[in-house]
Amino acid sequence: MKKYYAERSHKDMLDVLMSKEAKGPAVHYYMIRGGDEKTNITVWEQGLVGAEYIKSYGHYHIGSVEEKYKILQGEGILIIQERETNSFGKHSSDEIKSFQAKKIKAGDEILIPPSSGHLIVNTGKTWLVTSDNSPFSLDNKESAGLPMHADYESFKKLHGAAYYVVEKHGKPELVKNPNYKKVPDAKIE
To answer: What is the pLDDT of residues 59-85, one digit of tens each?
Structure first.
């Protein structure tokens, strides 16, 4: 039987957290997959894992996939990063060419470019809820939590995106991820 619902537990998120020892909720976020026909819905819990805000796992798009998100409720920060490529067109996992951290809120629509790495962080006091049109098929996967258009390995290998979003003095702030070799300076826009 196909399963269109998935959740990311605290245990699932340990690979991409700034601190593996930090305590967090049992489940960080929930996904209902409908693909292009029904859209996908994601709901993030609010709160912190240590100093870090609750976020999605993060992934890079494979091929020419473009995603469109609509923020239905809450507020947060969208992280988009682009990897450096060598002269043979191969991506460097630990060298980032561009990095953006954009504030998002209910009503915003966001376009994720092809080949981009991205994740969303809930910095609000309520659930953050999004709808997106990313392609989804359960034909070759057992779980709705692992879409075929997404590469999660680079984020796993480097323990998250190029920057973590942490709470400092009651506000979100970026902290560089030390596992990356090259990262441009960044600020929250």
So the answer is: 998 877 788 999 999 999 999 999 998
Instruction: For residue range 91-103, list pLDDT tens digits in order.
Output: 888 999 999 999 9
pTM: 0.91
| CB 74, CB 129: distance < 8 Å | yes
Least Cα distance to 183 among 119, 101, 111 occurs for 101
Look at residues 161, 2, 25, 164 and name the one whose alpha carbon lies nearest to residue 93. Answer: 161
Tokens representing 27 are: 């489940």
Say if residues 172 and 77 touch (Cβ distance below 8 Å). yes
Contacts of 134 (CB under 8 A, 6+ apart): 35, 40, 65, 67, 147, 149, 150
Q: What are the φ and ψ backbone dihedral angles of 103, each rounded to 5 degrees?
A: -70, 140
CA distances, 117 to each of 10, 142, 167 (Å): 21, 23, 22
Q: What is the DSSP letter of 188?
A: B
Cα–Cα distance, 181 to 184 (Å, whole number): 10
- Separation of first and last alpha carbons in the chain: 43
